[in-house]
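ok trying again, last paste got cut off:
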Amino acid sequence: MDSGNYYEILQKGKFITNYKPVLNRRAIFSDYSEDYIIPLEPNAYGVVTIKLRCISNNIDYAKLVCNGETLLMEITESTDEFDFYSVSYRLSNEMIRYHFEVGSAGSKYLYDTRGIVRDANEYFDFRIRPGFKTPDWAKGAVMYQIYTDRFYNGDPSNDVLSDEYRYIGENVTHVDDWNKYPAFMGVREFYGGDLAGVMAKLDYLQDLGIDAIYFNPLFVSPSNHKYDIQDYDYIDPHFGKIVDDGGELLKSDSKDNKEATKYINRVTNYANLEASNRYFASFVEEAHKRGIKVIIDGVFNHCGSFNKWMDRERIYEGQEGYEKGAYVDRNSPYHDFFRFFEDKWPYNGTYDGWWGHDTLPKLNYEGSRDLRDYVLRIAKKWVSPPFNADGWRLDVAADLGHSPEYNHQFWKDFRRAVKEANPNAIIIAEHYGDPSGWLMGDEWDTIMNYDAFMEPVTWFLTGMQKHSDDFRQDLLGNADAFEGMMKDGVSKFMAPTLFTTMNELSNHDHSRFLTRTNHVVGRVADKGYEAASIGVNKAVMREAVVMQMTWAGAPTIYYGDEAGVCGFTDPDNRRTYPWGNEDKELIRFHKEMIRIHKENREIITGAGVILHKDYNVIAYGRFIKNNEIIVIVNNNDCDKVIEMRVWQTGVPRESKMTRLMLTDAEGFSTESEEYEVVNGRINLTLPKTSAVVLKGRQGDEKPAGKEEAAERVSPLQKLEFLLH
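nice, full thing came through this time. structure:
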């Protein structure tokens, strides 16, 4: 066989030489993975090696087009299948943007994050920010989100009591029936879940395979969701420890929280606050012993009207050790923490509320350097000893401040404060839409991945909007739309962000994924509670979990999803964990998929490519050198014969792949089965509503060479082998 840029081609039963093939577009590949950017997170002023792959002897040249400079690439590695072109680039401390130019048979092609394209577009360039690093532990980490009040009650002595205080016009209530559905206006009802409850279930989480817990807010707050923080310095004693429980409940005819003396004592008494902080520190220590990280929720755009800085409820007024709140006194040291529209002291309610909500006072950073410094101190405090939290999730992070310029400056300062205190802490932002302006390496590490995971997976597998507010038949099973959404989302990331992005199917703000599988449009207010679980399809849920555990990023399980919890959007998505009534098969499935996720490094920081798509069918590969995973999903309600190429992942053209997981309408199996790869293709029949995970090589297993493999096939197969 000619070793130059020519292939032999079969014509009229004979081989002729000097035929120059067209570019094999499927073989051209580069992305953000560890085999194509070396090192994956290069230092400022260091050298990075960037690679591009093509089929052997198929192109005339490859060039890197980087920041307006064009560099010729050289073949630095060849296998029997591929040539790898490389170039080393000396970095400064500024971000670089690049794409590739490839020449073949007299034609020029461009390659960026979209693949082979006609024209370059800087928006879709690959990007590297020198010095941008995210914690290694967070790359591919399996996270578990806990809404604490609904997880497990480990200490009934700290439960919120009925009539303990008033919240948004009514007295709070304690729920005695753990299995009761959340009330429609359920922010003021409490089930008693606490940190002691999570501590009691650490064995369960460890056995499940969890690497990190993400807690919804834990700080002192009057609501069960706690996104209206009352005191950033302390863990809420209702989640922590109450060591001094004096005071009285509100009397039946009282509407004034100044008379809620039990609540005031519980949340302002430093003995309770310090005991709760100590308990949190002990919790983190115990989690760390088990290899579990702890991420806490930071709500810094707004606080709550109960907050000690505002004190609209006047529960801090007159309490020893507390300054007067800005609502109470114009001369409060916290006056500038907020914007007031009128001079109406004492008890001035004319302050700026986030989206007009007077229970959520907007924090006025531009008006107060002291506020900025206070919050940056909080940012450092909780990731430092003795608490040692492993990161922050940032609520509505893009809304903070009164201008984009201040917002970006604040998050730069926040990142600096957190990373100086704990370089291994992760910073994850809640964000919808294009996050790229915050993901330049000097603000957020990553995001909750709505646009490039939750939404595309939900539309493709269920046709449902993430709140269950709409059903789109045109998006159900639409593989082209799925690929387009995913590629567009990934184009906004860089490698450090991509492999740490929080990939969720459900969370506290959206309907449960299992409920979306029933295609019921609506909310609990108009459909009722039972409708959330009628007609759900666990096989579709398992398909989604397969994708979650094999896609690039940090798969994040919303508590109870693994146990079969259903629910429409907020507040129904905040049902209690069903201890004693768990779907144990679904839990076992999650454990197996988590095991597969962890045992195969190509899933953590490997390359990814869409291999095959059809109506209700998607197949993709994750791979690093000599290690390949193939995932195929058949979301049709009928069996599907799948014939597809797998050689693009590096799977040898003549080899076998081993099945690691099969899930379908009947259940799931981890029983091993082998599938033949012939001429780079695999042929199998997938049952309805199914997904399969296949494993190629293990480690340094060497593929058959072209000549050796070609000896095992017919001349016609040899032709396709050489050209495709």
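cool. The first strand starts at residue 7 and ends at 11. Residues 640 and 686 are 5 Å apart (CA to CA).
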